[in-house]
Design brief:
The structure is a homodimer.
Chain A lengths: L7 H8 L3 H9 L6 H13 L6 H8 L4 E6 L5 H16 L3 E6 L4 H13 L4 E4 L12 H5 L4 E4 L10 E4 L1 H14 L5 E5 L5 H16 L9 E3 L7 H10 L7 E4 L2 H13 L9 E3 L16 E3 L2 H17 L9 E4 L2 E3 L14
Parallel strand pairs in A: 1-2, 1-3, 3-4, 4-5, 5-11, 6-7, 6-8, 8-9
Antiparallel strand pairs in A: 10-12
Chain A binds a DNA duplex through helix 2 and helix 4.
Chain lengths: 347, 347
Amino acid sequence: MVRKRTSISDIAKELNLAVSTVSRALSDHSRISEATRKRVWELAEQLNYQPNHLAAALRKGRSNTLGVIVPNIDGHFFALVVKGIEEVANQAGFNVMLCQSNEDNAHEAKNVETLMNAQVDGILVSLSRSTHDFKHFDKVQQRKMPLVFFDRILTGSEVSAVVVDDYQGGYQMTKHLLDQGRRRIAHFGGPQHLNIYKDRYRGYCQALRDADLPVEEELVVLFKKMSLEDGPAGIRHLLALPQPPDAIFSSGDFTAVGALRALKQHGLRVPQDVALAGFGNETFSSLTDPMLTTVDQHCEEMGGAAVRLLLEMIQERTRQWSPRKIVLQPRVLVRESSAVAAAVAVG
Amino acid sequence: MVRKRTSISDIAKELNLAVSTVSRALSDHSRISEATRKRVWELAEQLNYQPNHLAAALRKGRSNTLGVIVPNIDGHFFALVVKGIEEVANQAGFNVMLCQSNEDNAHEAKNVETLMNAQVDGILVSLSRSTHDFKHFDKVQQRKMPLVFFDRILTGSEVSAVVVDDYQGGYQMTKHLLDQGRRRIAHFGGPQHLNIYKDRYRGYCQALRDADLPVEEELVVLFKKMSLEDGPAGIRHLLALPQPPDAIFSSGDFTAVGALRALKQHGLRVPQDVALAGFGNETFSSLTDPMLTTVDQHCEEMGGAAVRLLLEMIQERTRQWSPRKIVLQPRVLVRESSAVAAAVAVG
DNA sequence: TTGTAGGCGTTATCAG
DNA sequence: CTGATAACGCCTACAA
């Protein structure tokens, strides 16, 4: 007794109506007599009718599904962004198809293909760390498929995007460390072809300059992955200097925590000997001892904003969008690792 | 100049073939002359033909999409499970549609509707913490839509599922604490209608009994959410006892870390005064000071296994599946918070 | 080996 | 206000 789904035509037959009439009754759209509208709805309810979205999608040319590509989902940041994306998308009646690039360029390209084939109505992307060019997005743009980037984009690219003002984040954080009286501030940074790491670094530099301090090359350490393990490596480098730093601003929380552990092992006290600040407000950053000063990026808002931007593009009939950028202001969270007297949020 | 996507019939026209021939050539399926096969593929390539999956899905009655419902995605556990799900699903040519229930029953019910309407070929679910019954899954089963639960299921329910042997996890962890010489071991648990919390608790009880120790009611604290904030609350309760515990086994890492912080604030040393163990191997559990002993659940494997089970069900033509359960063995990770001499992984 | 025809479930466009 | 009919793009008997 395998029940087939009831379709619009089942209802039509039962009620001696034309399918088109039923369709209209169901979608409330055109002019329909209240009487038949009611009859149709009641029977639909009774037969537990569920519209076949695939058919509708095929007919209408839109699937009501958004594609999302993120480097990964097991970090705090993207998990929250995805949460924001999903929430807003669902509210607007869109489903979300999720893909992870695993920080891999080739995988990302495959994801793009997948989503295009799945006929999504638009794509949201945050670039993988190994992505240096846009060529796998060419097809998307040729197809005039709405495309919005978030957080990670290529430096200097002209695309629609929602990003955090990483420059401000880097600037404010460095300024905070300066305000604490620190003068030799080191920096742990990530790959500079990604806007986020580049901008944080730029903010750091500018803050130093504004304080009439030089940017000392030996105090800047750039990593490829900004992983936990990079922390100890960075610390080794810094402590080997003739004049080690009295503060470190890391462009990522993972590396910061790695550094924290390494500093402790070297017998240095945080923040007394070395102040430490991260970036990203990962879950664990408030669970370390001392708790890590970091920068919050409004992850969920970012996801929501990205979806709204994408939906706008989808709604516009003229498929000629000019790149539009939304910039969110980050927030410095001062915690124990940077302030001798623990303080509250700033900015 | 809005390019329409090229369809199978465009190719057919261009090559003076029937659409069916092209279709077959493209899917390599039936017997086709090598010559035309080649011609078709070449033109397809040249025109950058992309199959319209919606149409195929409509025709074949399967969308090659799996639906996933998780309580949330911003914790380590589900993020990793989803990663595993996605990986295996993609390899098998399936897309993943993601929904979060936000630990809310009503939201979960809505998610189910959404996925059914999206015509997914099967659904993977981990129950929200506020879900006490299966009634919103009735329709899924009526429709004979493949359904697999993972991790969180209702205690004693007969469904296909992939779970961790939480009983063993609880047992082994408690045994580990006993092996460390602890005799008054407290337990922080979660809602008992969920298998995971119930089984961890059962394991705890049995380990005590096997050591000829009583399960003392005052040492067992059950929480609704197992959040970070529950930790301090639990600690307050335990320290107010005439005879406080010398160890705590928490059914979740968050509560454990909250407890860790509270213990420190009370001037107690971990593990010297109180040994502490969590459950879940959250990212942060290895970043605390001391590092937290916990239980790893093979999250990604769980996701993969769940997908494989679901795919099996999808492939079976007879839509008469008998509930099948896969049980993964957890792994106790001994770290600083429970062992005076830090040790290695056990089990 | 290839072509013909019908249909998956909806929606849109015409008439009536 | 309602009905008939033609797509949407693809697949699959069945026929040639």
